[in-house]
Design brief:
Elements: H1 2-19, E1 40-48, E2 54-55, E3 58-62, E4 68-74, E5 80-88, E6 94-99, E7 102-103, E8 114-118, E9 124-126, H2 131-142, H3 149-162, H4 185-208, H5 215-225, H6 241-259, E10 264-265, E11 268-269, H7 271-281, H8 296-310, H9 316-327, H10 335-341, H11 351-359, H12 362-368, H13 371-378, E12 383-386, E13 390-392, E14 399-407, E15 414-422, E16 437-441, E17 447-453, H14 457-462, E18 466-471, E19 478-479, E20 484-488, H15 511-531, H16 538-544, H17 549-560, H18 566-582, H19 602-612, H20 615-626, H21 635-642, H22 648-664, H23 670-689
Parallel strand pairs: 1-9, 12-19, 13-20
Antiparallel strand pairs: 1-5, 2-7, 3-4, 3-6, 6-8, 10-11, 12-14, 14-17, 15-16, 15-18, 18-20
């Protein structure tokens, strides 16, 4: 099937060479005349066409005066061209134009003319012809300046800054002169197709709105716009605010698809077609579209565009995009990672804003065409990082101060989580604050200092170590370069601190007796739980882990300052809990998730996740939240059960599951939380009045 598709496309391309007519476009702009050396020079010019995907295109050459040279070329089966020309220096710069042929990805003729530029004579010159070179060349032509290396360089910088679309500068720093090889063709093909699809969708959006335009019109409007260094609807003649606005928001849409490796070309997912074109033009290639990393710059671009879109068409989908991208580390990611974070339809979050831009009045267009620039310049929440890679316990031997800085921007109210992680030191035994804790920064706030308590005085004497981590930024902020700092102790510089005043029987009556009962029962049931492990009886296991045993064991460990045997008992409880959730066990009622609230264990699972970061535990925290006791029943029966006074505990445990899911990093389920709160309040009302009311709107 794979090779049959490829053969079919190649056959089409041969027919196209004979039958397709060239697209019409605006006349190539004449460049300012420069008199130079009149000696004839033989020049070999070659390059790729269409980002390495267009075969059978006709290549023509024009001198700086717009005169078309007689010599022409054609792009070959591997989407390249080569020609030898006899020229004089005064004919430069040359404008190279490609029309017609077959786009191997779209399976049809290209939607617009492509241009490139050769600035100075060289005996062997690479001049690729693609959408990047087209926008660069047309931007230069739209400028009134004489063409110099500086003008060309400025145009290239502007195009790549605004429309990099995942183009990796380490692989392709110059899209005109960098030779396209098996190593970089996937990156170049994918970014070029994304750029091309943006132009097609912009054209189609305007046509649907009753504005008749061509792909060439869109290219020329963008190029004229970019002459001032921004995509803002201003610039040279032919710049258009409506086109600028649509281009901005369509860019967000196609970038979402490309990042997930689900780019749709002409409304069809083009992943296989792009990979097929890569094989057809570079048979030796081993890197394909699924291997192209999603750059941090590309993710930042999507987030900025989503932020700008929400200014005009707010939506939960866009909010979700912003929140997820804000939580990702500012590094490159794989397409698989990106696609796992978003549903297929996520890119549709931009659709309403795109349609709004197509039909907007002038006042809205003024804002829309500037939207990305406003967000990028005015809404820069910055990055979070530690002030140092290591910190030392203070001379009092009791505390260590950790500085968290907000760099690169300080706009808006944002938060970041921090937690401690043992290396040689042990949580609860040596130091506090082991779980993720939010840290809020006000608008304009750039630094905070957190103080961590040292519990065990011997930790200082023994020179023990633990880490502090940053994670889960919100409000559009991201993580910076220093996200882990090491806390160390210097056992030569700290005096022995005074002992901490501990609770005594005089302070709490019968304290020692309560401690003895806690340890005796904890040990007894922990041993019983462990001994069940070889041949577990399910009902016995659940009885033994009654009332969140995992939480209890961790709390005993924290109280006593001793990890064992309590951590081992907690892990046995976790095994039973995960077995229950993942295998959908049921109790004597015979239904999944029918256990009453006192056998539910959200807090213990959260403590486990905060301590270890276990992905399986994280996933099951959400399952526990989404499946409260008796939720297997139809909503009417479920509601009826929970109206009974004796089930007040189920509502409390359901709310607790939501609280700890939020603590673990999940977004709040506003509807369910509101429903449970109403039920809880009505239970309180029932206790005092004997009357229960359950609003239909929350069912």
């Amino acid at each position: 099937m794979f090779y049959s598709k490829l053969l079919a496309k190649l056959v089409i391309s041969v027919i196209a060479l004979v039958s397709l007519s060239a697209f019409s476009s605006r006349e190539t702009n004449k460049l300012p005349v420069h008199q130079g050396n009149k000696e004839t020079i033989n020049i070999d010019i070659s390059g790729s066409v269409g980002g390495g995907s267009i075969i059978g295109a006709t290549i023509t050459f024009s001198d700086r005066n717009g005169e078309v040279l007689h010599d022409t070329a054609s792009s070959s089966g591997n989407a390249t061209y080569q020609i030898s020309l006899d020229l004089i220096e005064s004919q430069y710069p040359l404008i190279i134009k490609a029309e017609g042929g077959i786009d191997l990805v779209a399976g049809s003729a290209p939607d617009f003319s492509l241009y490139s530029i050769a600035l100075t004579p060289s005996q062997e010159k690479t001049s690729n012809i693609n959408l990047y070179s087209t926008l660069i060349t047309r931007t230069v032509q739209s400028s009134s300046n004489e063409v110099t290396e500086e003008v060309l360089s400025r145009a290239q910088e502007t195009v790549l800054r605004i429309f990099s679309f995942g183009l990796d500068p380490q692989l392709i720093a110059n899209p005109i002169e960098r030779q396209i090889t098996a190593d970089n063709t996937a990156n170049f093909s994918k970014s070029s197709e994304t750029l091309g699809e943006m132009i097609r969708r912009t054209r189609d959006t305007l046509i649907t709105a009753g504005i008749q335009v061509t792909g060439n019109d869109i290219v020329d409007a963008i190029a004229a716009d970019l002459t001032d260094g921004q995509l803002d609807g201003l610039g040279a003649e032919h710049a258009n605010k409506r086109i600028a606005a649509i281009v901005n928001f369509v860019s967000g849409q196609v970038l979402m698809e490309a990042a997930a490796n689900r780019l749709r070309v002409n409304n069809v997912v083009a992943t296989d077609a792009m990979d097929t074109a890569i094989i057809a033009t570079h048979p030796e290639a081993t890197i394909f579209t699924g291997d192209v990393m999603i750059t941090a710059a590309m993710l930042d671009k999507i987030r900025t565009l989503a932020n700008s879109a929400t200014l005009f068409s707010p939506s939960p989908v866009l909010d979700n995009i912003i929140d997820i991208l804000s939580s990702l580390p500012s590094v490159d990611h794989t397409p698989n990672t990106f696609s796992s974070l978003f549903p297929i339809e996520a890119s549709g979050g931009f659709s309403n804003t795109i349609q709004h831009a197509a039909q907007a009045m002038k006042s809205d267009l003024d804002a829309m065409s500037w939207a990305e620039n406003l967000v990028a310049r005015k809404n820069n929440p910055g990055h979070f990082e530690f002030g140092a890679t290591s910190n030392t316990v203070n001379k009092d031997g009791r505390t260590v101060e950790i500085t968290i800085n907000r760099v690169g921007g300080s706009d808006g109210e944002v938060t970041v989580d921090w937690m401690t992680q043992g290396v040689t030191a042990t949580f609860a035994q040596d130091y506090g604050n082991f779980h993720w804790s939010p840290l809020a920064f006000a608008d304009g706030e750039i630094s905070k200092v957190e103080v961590i308590s040292i519990i065990n005085i011997d930790m200082v004497e023994n020179g023990e170590v633990f880490n502090v981590l940053l994670g889960n930024p919100t409000g559009g902020a991201s993580l910076g370069s220093i996200t882990t700092t090491v806390v160390t102790t210097d056992n030569n510089s700290h005096p022995s601190p005074s002992p901490i005043l501990l609770a005594t029987d005089e302070m709490i009556p019968m304290l020692s007796e309560w401690e003895s009962i806690m340890l005796e029962n904890g040990e007894h049931w922990g041993q019983y739980l462990t001994n069940l492990h070889p041949a577990p009886g399910y009902y016995n296991e659940q009885t033994t882990t009654y009332y969140d045993a995992q939480r209890v064991y961790y709390q005993i460990a924290e109280y006593t300052g001793e990890q064992e045997p309590w951590y081992s008992y907690a892990l046995e409880a976790k095994r039973i809990y995960l077995n229950y959730i993942e295998n959908s066990y049921s109790d004597y009622y015979g239904y999944n998730f029918s256990f009453p609230g006192y056998r539910r264990f959200a807090q213990g699972l959260y403590m486990e996740y905060a301590l270890t970061g276990d992905a399986a535990v994280y996933a099951n925290i959400a399952k526990m939240r989404d499946n409260p006791a008796f939720s297997f029943l139809p909503v009417q029966a479920f509601t009826s059960l929970w109206t009974q006074e004796r089930y007040s505990r189920e509502i409390a445990y359901a709310l607790e599951a939501h609280i700890f899911a939020e603590k673990a990093g999940y977004a709040r389920d506003e509807k369910d939380v509101a429903r449970y709160l109403v039920m809880a309040l009505n239970h309180i009302r029932e206790w005092t009045t004997g009357e229960f009311s359950y609003p239909a709107s929350y069912r």
